[in-house]
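Format is sequence with structure; example below:
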Amino acid sequence: MIAIIDYGAGNIKSLQFALAKLNKESILTTDPQVIKDAASIILPGVGAFKDAMDAINELGLTDVIKQEVQSGKPILGICLGMQLFYDKSYEDGEWEGLGLLRGNVSRIKEQVKVPHMGWNTIAKRAESPLTLNLTDNFYVYFVHSYAVEKLEEATLVGSTEYGGRVPAIVQQGNITGMQFHPEKSGDIGIQLLANYEEMIS
């Protein structure tokens, strides 16, 4: 069972539909016990970083997420969910994230149209089971105005170019992040989710 954390900031229906295509059972939840009992966790997200962290804190899920990840449970962060893994975001202020990965989140450079919305290519930066059966420069769907700016380079699996380098896939142990929306990225997105599930099973 996959626990999808339902803190009010995710396009969750399409994610559940994509997982169902892979015959993966998922449940939307804010129940700490359900999260603890799940085989893996997905932290989705659209919207503002501070609002998302406030919601997670108010639901009493911050420590639960950290404890489960520290125990080795696989977690996937999608779009804003990936950004929440990092130390800080500078979105309309300075806000603390979950601190699961080292790095900061900043606004995309102004020389390009913001938000970054639409299809863009991913260049592979490291060999990973996540990109198995995918060619280099595969297309996925993005919707975001902020991106990870500073990170540990060893965690970078794939990036795209949009006003500079945008980390698009990161992976460190049991923690995986995708800045784009695999559930909106057609067959490529389904393959990425399948690879993720294969990797953690």
Summary: The chain has a mean pLDDT of 95.
